[in-house]
Amino acid sequence: MRVLLLFIDGFGLGSNNPEINPIVRFGLHTINQLFDQPMISDIGLNLTPECCMIPIDTTLGVEGLPQSATGQAAILTGLNTAKAMGRHIQAFPGPQLSNIITENNIMKRLTEAGMLVTSANMYTPNYFELVAKRKRRHSAITLAALSTGMSLRSLPEMYINEAVYQDITNVTLPDFGVDHLPVLSPTQAACNLVNISRKYSFTIFEYFQTDRAGHKQDWLHAGRILRLLDEFIGAVYKRLPADTLMIITSDHGNFEDMSVKTHTFNKVPLIALGYRAQETVGAITDLTGIAPAIVAVLGKDDPCD
Known about the structure:
By secondary structure, the protein is of the alpha/beta class. Helix content is 39%, strand content 12%. The chain has a seven-stranded mixed sheet with strand order 2-3-7-6-1-5-4, sandwiched between helices.
């Protein structure tokens, strides 16, 4: 068995109001058709053996708006990191939270159990230089990947379709000094992601343009994002191997409410499609349930060669 985790930053379940919710205005048709209802706050549980949608809590019993650093850490570790830190921590983890992630994340646990894991994301060639100059900081997901000792994917992998850039299509790469890679269709990027995932027990891909668009209240970008994600998710699902489970989730709400620039208290979707979907996610109620569920279901199988 294999698990492909698609993390979409700032993607909550909002109101059924197209005036403030781009997911309602523009639609995410692949998901809507699978569950025969739109992705809104009153969607409720939708469980079948191979197709599940669960609204899950991101507040974790801690006051204040949910934030990226502790939300992603909770997804990756299965720990209530907001409670451990005494608050929700925004953006990138500081030293204490970074240590919790590095020591307890799912990628490290699976690696220690003899399974192959990877991040499919491509990093620009100067990424580590920017980090060293404190112009960039590692996200929680990057910290988890680095904790395993793996090398992050960069241009060599992109040349052979063994990486996917964070914007999916490569269209923003020239903004970061990379102007010689072709722009891909979402379907082409999806094919690359699925092919990467065939080699690993666990693969993660991080997409954060949703959170950026929400903070900027950028309706034009939101429309483009949803068209891109619709094609991308649909193409991944269509090509998903029979032994693979795709999980889609987020760390907090934001994108679903363009009336505010901040995050929201809304629940986020936990979507599971494919092999052992209901068995894996059916009992999850908040962010802390994701990592333990994946570890448990993968532990039932022999590690992938």
